[in-house]
Amino acid sequence: KKISDILEKSAPKPGVPADLQNLLSQHFGENRSVIEREELKLSVPSLCVYTGFFIAVCPKWAKLRKNHKEKKSVVMLVICSSALRSLELIKSMTAFKGDCRVLKLFAKHIKIKEQINMLEKGVFHIGVGTPGRVKALVEQDGLCLNSTKYIILDWNWRDQKLRRMMDIPEIKKETIDLLEMCIIKLCREGSVKLGLF
């Protein structure tokens, strides 16, 4: 069945925390021991769904933005399925972001070295990009997530073929790899809140 056929019969439901947990369980399933699977579980306080916009995510944004002085990091990281979707989200955040600095974290027309240099030289508050590029930046020590407070997955948005980011195999794999590499650990430690938008 095609996604469009399924959606024709019923309206798409917004994502809930259980969706992400089920996705991780299905992905790792039999490949991991019981203990390893337990380490991949997220608690409800660290995993929240925000149906509003970014203001609902971060009510203390002005204070966090003002206090953020660290290079090579962002306060909020938004992960999207494509560069075009990232640009669309950056444009729609205008009222929220105010005068804070936003960094584009995707591969289209921007070399990874340029992004690493920008992160080393300046202070950025919001990073918006694709899971593949974010993962590459973290692996190359260009982006540090230790001072990141919010990570938002663009979970419910659908492309022209009505696919969400987790319906696209390569995006799904990159996102799960990124979650496993560092995000789940940060959520379990309580330093990051993970949101589904």
How many structural domains can be distinguished in the coordinates? 1
Q: Helix count, per DSSP?
A: 10
Broad CATH class? Alpha Beta
Oligomer: single chain
Biggest sheet character:
6 strands, parallel
In which range does the helix fraction lie? 40-55%
Structural class: alpha/beta
CATH topology: Rossmann fold
Return residue spans where pLDDT drops below 50 for at least 5 consecutive residues.
Answer: 45-53
The overall pLDDT average reads 84
Order of helices and strands: HHHEHHEHHEHEHEHE
Overall number of strands: 6
Q: Walk across the major sheet and give the strand order.
A: 1-6-5-2-4-3
Protein name: CMS1 protein
InterPro entries: Cms1 (IPR032704), P-loop_NTPase (IPR027417)
Pfam families: CMS1 (PF14617)
